[in-house]
Amino acid sequence: MNKYRLLTPGPVPVPEETLLELARPVVHHRTAESRRVLADVLAGMRYVYQTAGDVVPLTCSGTGAMEAALVNAVPRGRKALCLVAGRFGERWHKLWTAFGVESIPLKAPDGRAVSVEQVREALARHPDVAAVCVVYCETSTGVKHDVRALGELVAQTPAVLIVDAISALGTMECRTDDWHLDLVACGSQKALMLPPGLAFLSVSRKAWEQIEKHSPPAYYFDLRKYRAKLAEPDTPYTPAHTLLRALVKNLHRIQSIGIENFWEHHGRLARAARAGVQALGLKLFADPPADGLTVASVPDQLDGQELLRRLEKDHGIKLAGGQDQLRGKIVRLAHMGYMDFFDILAALAGLEMTLLSMGWRVELGASLTAAQHAYAQLSATSRSRPG
Questions:
Q1: pLDDT for residue 380
Q2: C-alpha torsion sign, points 358, 333, 9, 26
Q3: ∠ Cα 103 323 359 (to 5°)
Q4: DSSP at 57
Q5: pLDDT > 70: what percent of the chain?
Q6: Distances (CA, A) of 328 to 103, 147, 307, 318, 379
Q7: Within a 13 Å sphere around the CA of 347, how many CA atoms are in the beta-carbon half?
Q8: Which of 9, 14, 267, 314 meets the CB 3.0–4.6 Å disulfide criterion with 334?
Q9: Which of 150, 170, 113 is nearest to 286 (CA)?
Q10: pTM (global) more than 0.90
Q11: How far apart, in whole angstroms, are the C-alpha atoms of residue 135 and residue 203?
Q12: 379 vs 339, 374, 383, CA distance in Å?
């Protein structure tokens, strides 16, 4: 009998006390109690975002939050730069086009990020762009973009910076105000440790000024309606209020840990996972890598889809594979949200045994030793810091 372990880049495991909160009786959403819950959530989310500005709650997936950002910020007929370093960057490029915006893709090879210099050159060629759109953590490849540098660059222009932080918020440092990030989307089923169904969007003053200049082609996603309700606080349409109530538990957990420590926790897991994967003789796929997941190339002589199938069937460990042209070529081991070091060890042990069963030359225990050394070294370094 295997215990099922979910280590995919969304959805992620949910803490037990949060699951119990979801089992409580459903209350009405237009009550003083529900407004208090929403106020608590918004305060907690401003802390996670590191912003003093508005955070808009949306009942949808992270993709809905990104669509809301795009259609509200840029009118039909304008231009946007879209950084494409994987499937999700490509999704936003297609979404811009669907709403009549001229999307100019800036592409990087699989496993690489679009450089800040590419964006700088594109802004010089297209000074009339209204927005720059980037995926902070491109989970299809495991790549991280330098959103801090991009924020500093785009802040010098009239354009707004739209950030897909759906898999990044909480897993990596994100200082929304200090880094000049204008619209930042996240989803509940990642580092926020909830089931899918909630999304949030931070909106800067610069973004609101741009939004107010035109009427967006939206009804449900018209951000001006949400802004009008934030003071109460309330939402213009029925919220996923049972998820909001459960999220309070997780936000209190993050606040008690401290957001910097929460980022550091994910960084330690990431470094341990990378060390373990490399000790298996597998090559890391992403450069630079995000801290929400570790992506490794599958050796040419092995079937990547069969590897994942056996790993789940024989050991109860669920990892993710590649998508589109990367199907069967990479494995994606996530370490975001409600996961600890021993979840990573379990995944590495399962990979070792599965690779061995498929004929890959593996020294059993090598990945666990490497991961433990990396994790112990980082933990010791963290303890030795002053303050």
A1: 58
A2: positive
A3: 150
A4: E
A5: 97
A6: 30, 30, 9, 15, 34
A7: 31
A8: 9
A9: 113
A10: yes
A11: 16
A12: 16, 9, 6
